[in-house]
Amino acid sequence: MSEITHPLRKYMRPQVKKTTFCPGCGAGIITQSLLRAIDELGLTMDDCVFVSGIGCSAWIPSPLLNADTLHTTHGRPIAFASGVKMGLPDKHVIVVSGDGDLSAIGGNHLIHAARRNIDMTVILVNNGIYGMTGGQTAPTTPYGLTTITSPYGNAEHEFDISALVVAAGASYVARWTTYHPRQMTKSIKKGIEKKGFAMIEAIAQCPVQFGRVSKQGSAVNMLKNYKQNGIRVEKAAKMDAAELQGKIVEGEFVDLDKPELISSIAAALQRRTGGNK
Amino acid sequence: MGEAKRINTGTHFMMGNQACVEGVIAAGCGFAAGYPITPASEVFNSLCKQLPKAGGTLLQTEDEISAVCAAIGASWTGLKSMTVTSGPGISLMQENIGLAVATETPLVIVDVQRLGPSTGVPAVGMAGDMVQVARGSHGDYQIIAICPESPQEMFDMTVHAFNLAEEYRVPVFVMAEGFIGHMRERVVIPDESEIKLVNRKITQGGETSTRCDFLDPDVAPMPVFGRGFKAHVTSSCHDEHGTRNLSDPDVMHRYIMTPIQKILSKRDRIVEVEADYEGAKLVLVSYGVVSRSSRQAAAMARAAGLKVGTLRLKTAWPFPEKEVRAAAESADFVLVLENNTGQMYPYIKAESAHACKIDFLGPQVLGQIHDPQYILAKIREIMK
To answer: Which of A257, B68, B96, B260 is the most exposed place for a label (fewest CB within 10 A)?
Structure first.
């Protein structure tokens, strides 16, 4: 009897037989989008180095992907990835981590890496809550939502991470929900190919934590919500704040070419020394 | 025009922090990350100019957390990597110093120490980080820390620190004090051919799942990134292959114990002291800048007919317990001199108190270097 193997299985460590993701988690869809992007670009895993932090989505590359993977401390993957990229400028350095990891504890590294425009691709998985630690309020948790650490309702306003990273100076920023995996794949491809800092904010369902407290329930219901409330950035631009209430604005927020950090360093040295070190 | 000489061979009148820079370059460092901080800034400032010309790259990061993380990331690409800071920066780096220990990452951290706690006095040197570099990250682990006493040793020990980091896959601290960083003295930089360099062992390949990349007491070859080794590096508890394991007590035991044994089993090769106490009744034990005062005080005491010797700890960690014990067992009194309120004193006392009397003498005023006359007065008081 022949065994049916998933076409993307070849990108995963052979000894890894299971994932750590809960049933219904959005991480599987994002893993597929990432691997399809690599596959469609004709890259091998040896062309990439993956760096992740702490949290559920940091488990997408480690231990799953059969590549060089660096699984770091909470909030710091972009800082580690910056050193990796400086050492291996010809490799695609890809960070996969969550909204808590990259926008709360690691927020400073995110904005400064975007400002430097260092060539890396960040896949920021945003599930709107701290999933792994049991459903605490995150900087991305909607205002008013009741969680285990906001038992009387979240009194804080949520981050618009994509807007933050655009403002910080990234070369490419896009946001897609897990209801739009093909668009997400396309954006990851563009992010990997972009010579500069690229972030894809992947809005992902966490039925176990976010689904429960938001009363959206199952993964299927959450995906239906993404379908109903997802709205393209071009259309959103023509809507007012009241109309945008509860909507998830999707698409590309920025796609531009500007000098990248490592090539800028090399060019500056070349200019000042004329190649004579 | 031929390529400029990479190493600044010759005799110089040089600041300690600049001598450190020359050591970083002589060691073949490929990446440095840093964040401005007094009294360490001159090291990174000069590196920014000199390291690119020596073929290395740098990143001035948004904070010291990012600096140590970037240096660790770059080390995994196969480059000799370093960062430089002072006490407040070390405090911020602590969590990821633990990561470097757990992932067995070669890394040099130059710590030009200053007066604390908190912001303290940036430009005044005190040996304020002696314990925090060895015990400041959570969990149990061993690092290596060495203590220069002069600008010359800022060069020598910086090169040595890279060699130790490469050989043992461990963070190595150069424990300068602000006084040494800013001191100007004669520094002799030898010819390139006379500088011994150590490079890490790199894995020969094979499958990640069968290869030993971690947890070898004799130091596993490193599966550096970018060469198709598919290295699995995690700060979580892991086995020899790098595979995370949070359920097997044997793996947890090895995850903690092997990196400790990796250092402690080689301690005889790592630990260096300067012992000059033969026939002495009283031994002055010190490290860093204080050792200069200690030697002077001992010379003055001997000239006055007092049997006084010195033991200088060039290595602070792993702690030179055997060497301290030998000194204590040969003398009637051990006097510990430190440029702080006694950070290493409990460790020295633990190895001495069984054999002789022991006391501690900090600077006459904290923030000032011990005056040899002040040490001599204490010696006379003890020996009268």
So the answer is: A257
